[in-house]
Amino acid sequence: MAHFKNIPKTKEIAGSDRAFGRSQYLLRIGPQGRIVIPAPIRKALGLIPGAVVMGRIEDGKVVLSRSNPLEELRAMFKNATFSSKTLTAERRREEARKEAAEFSHEDTKARKKN
After folding, report:
1. Same structural domain for residues 33 and 59?
2. How far is Cα 14 from Cα 22, in angstroms, rounded to an integer?
């Protein structure tokens, strides 16, 4: 790694288009695979120590974005086809099946005794 000693850990790339909010940074990957998100990026995204970010690979690039648990849940269930009415009806059917099974079991026990 001797050839990297003269490169700063984080450096804004010359020619970044600040007018359009497109600053680019060279980031160094540490020995444990960690990178430091530059302060201007953290500030722009409102990231504080302990914040959670989403990471994904998109078109051969690593994309990090601010994580919002509510938005993540909405995205996960975006195409869900069930509603609270469906869930309630399903619960009622399940309860009816349990009651029928218990009644059947008790009825079988009573018949065996007679």
Report:
1. yes
2. 12
* Contacts with 40 (C-beta within 8 Å, 6 or more apart), sequence order: 12, 23
Model confidence pLDDT, tens digit, residues 11-35: 565 555 554 456 788 888 999 999 9
| Residues spanned by the domain of 86 | 81-113
Residue 100 CB neighbour total at 10 angstroms: 10
pTM given for the model: 0.44
In degrees, rounded to 5, the angle at the alpha carbon of residue 60 between the alpha carbons of residues 67 and 39 is: 45
Alpha-carbon distance values, 27 to 20, 87, 102, 108, 113 (Å):
21, 48, 64, 72, 78
Strand partners, 61: 58
